[in-house]
Design a protein that fits this description.
The protein has 3 helices and 5 strands. β2 and β3 form a beta hairpin. It starts with a strand and ends with a helix.
């Protein structure tokens, strides 16, 4: 039985559509990535110590990258058994996922990468069905 997967992805969520001969399954994966880290405490501080309330840029970037890696690993777990994978979405997340798939020796299964705007779940499922039907 052949298993194909298509997914729409950005840094906030991924909609994964797995198509088999028995039908299709749609999964939504929400990332826990926080782009803008907030200051600690409930009141803004004044004076020389305010800078200590915001994490340094390199630690924020490490945290952001770590959260993204966990998110991509969760997406890869959903599509690991697929023979062919279509990745599409509006931003750079699709390219980052492709690099992550290459690192897991799954990059050869990617049959296409497309740039598309926001889509509803039914539109995503229809696009994946149409792509693998032809």
């Amino acid at each position: 039985m052949s298993i194909n997967a298509g997914l729409w992805i950005d840094h906030r969520k991924a909609v994964v559509v797995v198509v088999t001969e028995a039908g299709e399954e749609i999964n939504q994966i929400l990332s826990k990535v926080e782009k803008q880290l907030r200051r600690t405490g409930s009141t803004p501080l004044q004076g020389n110590f305010e800078s200590q309330q915001v994490p340094a840029d390199d630690s924020r970037q490490r945290m952001f990258t770590g959260q993204l890696n966990n998110y991509y690993d969760e997406v890869i777990a959903c599509i690991r058994d697929s023979e062919s994978i279509l990745i599409f979405g509006p931003g750079v997340a699709k390219d980052e996922l492709k690099e992550r798939l290459d690192g897991n020796n799954l990059g050869g299964r990617v049959s296409g990468i497309e740039t598309v705007d926001k889509m509803t779940d039914p539109q995503i499922a229809a696009k994946v069905r149409q792509y693998f039907a032809g």
